[in-house]
Amino acid sequence: MRLTITDQAFEKLRENVPENSRLLLSFDDGVGPFSKVGICSLETSFDIIAVDREVKTPDYDAKLATNHGEWQYKGYSDVYLDDDMKLDIKNNQLVLSGESGILDSSITVKNLVKQAG
């Protein structure tokens, strides 16, 4: 599984997450400490979450290759993902798409990295 991040999407990520953080592509299904609980929706929703490198994330047990380093995701959520995906900007929103079309048209970025000091 591979994710290509366009230059525009990468710039938006750089504006919102610290350079030394670890990134998670989080399927928002109510599982784990970073997911909203009790969301009932027909839409598939993903977030990009920046965490400190040393934070334990046992729910994120699978690795995703990107052109800007390795990310992690919940392995069971791969049924909602495609083998070849792209993260891009459309209408000032981060959009995740793949061979099957748009997977999420409004990706939220969450910075959960602790600030030094």
Automatic annotation (TrEMBL):
Residues 1-110 form the Core domain. It comes from Lentilactobacillus farraginis DSM 18382 = JCM 14108. Pfam families: Fe-S_biosyn (PF01521). It comes from the Bacteria. InterPro entries: ATAP_core_dom (IPR000361), HesB-like_dom_sf (IPR035903). This is Core domain-containing protein. Coiled coil: none annotated.
